């Protein structure tokens, strides 16, 4: 039975390359045409494969509907939380998870620092969109015309001398973040707080969330915090892999 399931599932990536006839499917699987036909008929009955009028088979609409439904029901916070806790245990600093929703970037999870100095950020609270590292990652992933339109609409409060001052500077920063694949906020919102962040990507490669590690200068310097960037990026990659289905979840 497991061999039958394996063969049936092997048909799907073949058809993802384009329509194929019965002979091509049989050849790829290394089975007789009668076996390939039985597998195709079963997949067709479930809507996962569609037979065209030219007797070629392609992926069925049901497969795309299932994929879309699965994506809509994914909870990035639920997937990410254990990874955020593990990162916090490794570095000791505050860890955030944020998403872009309706023109705001919101924190949706937070793991507190183990140090006495705590950050005022709260789950559900919007971030300072023109300076926050997580916001830069989420907005940098937007198409260029959307980035430009958004940049022109935003206000640019000067929280500190390092705050982003205007749309042109913001767009330059987003382009830099887009190219390097990570972001920082080194005293842009609060002089004494530094932050490094990395993106979480879905199966299509788009950024679905961003995670960060933040710490005050009295605990670590900006340069010391930047040494954690490889660890932050590995954590984000692990969440991305689990969220997109590229890697299995670790046993609980």
Descriptive notes:
This protein is an alpha+beta fold and 252 residues long. 46% of the residues lie in helices and 18% in strands. It contains 10 helices and 7 strands. It has helices spanning 2-16, 22-29, 33-45, 61-72, 76-91, 133-140, 144-153, 167-180, 222-226, 229-244, and strands at residues 49-51, 57-59, 94-101, 104-111, 183-186, 193-201, 207-216. The strands form 2 sheets. Strands 4-3-7-6-5 form a 5-stranded antiparallel beta sheet, with helices on both faces. Strands 1-2 form a two-stranded antiparallel ribbon. Strand 5 and strand 6 (193-201) form a beta hairpin. The radius of gyration is 23 Å and the shape is elongated. The two termini are 29 Å apart. The model has no long low-confidence stretch (mean pLDDT 90). InterPro entries: GAF-like_dom_sf, HTH_MetabolicPath_Reg, Tscrpt_reg_IclR_C, Tscrpt_reg_IclR_N, WH-like_DNA-bd_sf, WH_DNA-bd_sf. This is IclR family transcriptional regulator. Residues 62-245 form the IclR-ED domain.
Question: What is this entry, summarized?
Answer:
The chain is an alpha+beta fold and 252 residues long. The chain is 46% helix and 18% strand.
Tag the structure with descriptive keywords.
252 residues; alpha+beta; five-stranded antiparallel beta sheet; two-stranded antiparallel ribbon; 10 helices; 7 strands; 18% strand; elongated
What is the C-alpha radius of gyration, as a whole number of Å?
A: 23 Å
Please mark out the parts with pLDDT under 50 across 5 or more consecutive residues, or reply none.
none
Distance between the termini: 29 Å
Q: What's the β-strand tally?
A: 7
Q: What is the oligomeric state here?
A: single chain
Backbone shape? elongated
Strand content is: 15-25%
- Roughly what percent helix? 40-55%
Order of helices and strands: HHHEEHHEEHHHEEEHH
Overall mean pLDDT: 90
> How many alpha or pi helices?
10
Counting helices, strands and paired strands, the structural category is alpha+beta
